[in-house]
Amino acid sequence: MTVPxxxxxxxxGRDDGVSRRVDEVSPITVRRATAADAHGIAAVHVAAWxxxxxGRMPAAFLASLDVERRAAxxxxxxxxxxxDVFVAEGGxxxxxxxxxxxxxxxxxxxxxxxxxxxVLARVYGSGAGQRLLDCAIGSAPAYLWVMDGNGRAxxxxxxxxxTRDGATTTHPAxxxxxxxxxxxx
Length: 185
Fold this sequence. Notes:
The protein is of the alpha+beta class. The protein is built from six helices and nine strands. Helix 2 crosses helix 4.
């Protein structure tokens, strides 16, 4: 699937400073992940967390994220097949991923959970995130957890019909604790 046209960050390979459409370089496609994608998913996982959570999570925690360790975990997740995993590709590389499943919470408010969705900052606005969301959960009722204060992500989910339901949880992140809020539709 090709994403709708969108703007990318300035093309750093050029010196004219002009922003380029993502699809001028290469169309972004979304497909089911395979075990061979584990390293690419892990690389995006680490980079996207560092981009999205800088200043929101401890710098030491973000610096400690390890692509190789995460790649082994991703390989296991994909091979196990219990979670649906999708990747967005552009220019021959993975630039985003999404996972969804039947829900990890005992008191799940819906039968489907969007477990994660991340894209590299350089493809923000390209439609890659929307395509990943559409493939992972479509328009079905679902729920997700998002870091409290992550306005960009929460706005994206609100545009897709999600609202906060009042539930919260905490997650350790190095020496800090992160507050996450649940959204449902």
